[in-house]
Amino acid sequence: MLSFLYLDLNYFIIVGPALLLAIGAQLWVKGAIHRWSQVPSESGLTGRQVAQRVLDEAGIPGVQIEPSHGMLSDHYDPRERKLRLSPQVFDGRSVAAAAIAAHEAGHAIQHAQKYAPLELRNIAVPVAMFGSGVAPILFFVGLLLNSFNLALVGLIGFAAVAVFQLITLPVEFDASRRARAVLRDTNLIVSADEERGVNAVLTAAAMTYVAALVQTIMTLVYYVLILQSRSRRD
Ligand SMILES: [Zn+2]
């Protein structure tokens, strides 16, 4: 019983700060988007139009742009070659809408140019989905059954999630870098204030991916400590 108490305390000490960081990153990105959604872009173009311009500029035909449902649901689907933008971005004429639309178009450019980290990330998606869903269950079932090997399999599965999130970082940073460059080069963003807004939104969005990785790594550290203390006891 004491050891359980000790482990739970460990959870708060090790994973707690990472959880707070993740919550902070979410609040930060929502705040940045909220703020810059209220600033109209000088180009007056909607997010859909911005994405189309970015794709045209990069010489990438055949990518469909359609509205998606729900806030922050913006994404690029490489299988269907569709760029789905949330209603606020699709129809929005704000600095935030331009930034997000250009970022997602950046993913479509990565795909068309066979950008290696994106290809790697797409291959790793099923592994990561399996890992994040099943690995923690395997780990704790392994602990319950006193099966070190089963718990270890869970641990390795969870480590795969961390690797996936690590590969995601260059993909996200690169998409934002492309977005900034195209917005500037094509005069979709003109004033220094607009540029500040684009940077604020994209930097905050990138931080959510960093925070997610930190959270996974710290959870992994926690799992390793549990396994260590168990194997020491056995
Ligand atoms: Zn992205």
Radius of gyration: 21 Å
Class from secondary-structure proportions = mainly alpha
Helical percent range?
over 70%
The N- to C-terminal Cα distance equals: 16 Å
Biggest β-sheet: strands ordered side by side in the sheet? 1-3-2
- Identify the bound ligands: zinc ion
Arithmetic mean pLDDT: 92
Number of strands: 3
Short description:
This protein has 8 helices and 3 strands.
What does this protein look like?
This protein has 234 residues and is mainly alpha-helical. The chain has one domain. Helices cover 76% and strands 5% of the residues. The chain has 8 helices and 3 strands, in the order H-H-H-E-E-E-H-H-H-H-H. It has helices spanning 2-14, 16-37, 47-57, 87-90, 95-112, 116-144, 148-185, 192-233; strands at residues 64-67, 75-77, 82-85. A 3-stranded mixed beta sheet has the order 1-3-2. A hairpin with a 4-residue loop joins strand 2 (75-77) and strand 3. The chain starts with a helix and ends with a helix. The model has no long low-confidence stretch (mean pLDDT 92). Bound molecules: zinc ion. The site of zinc ion has 4 residues, from helix 5 and helix 7. Zinc ion is lined by residues 103, 107, 172, 175.
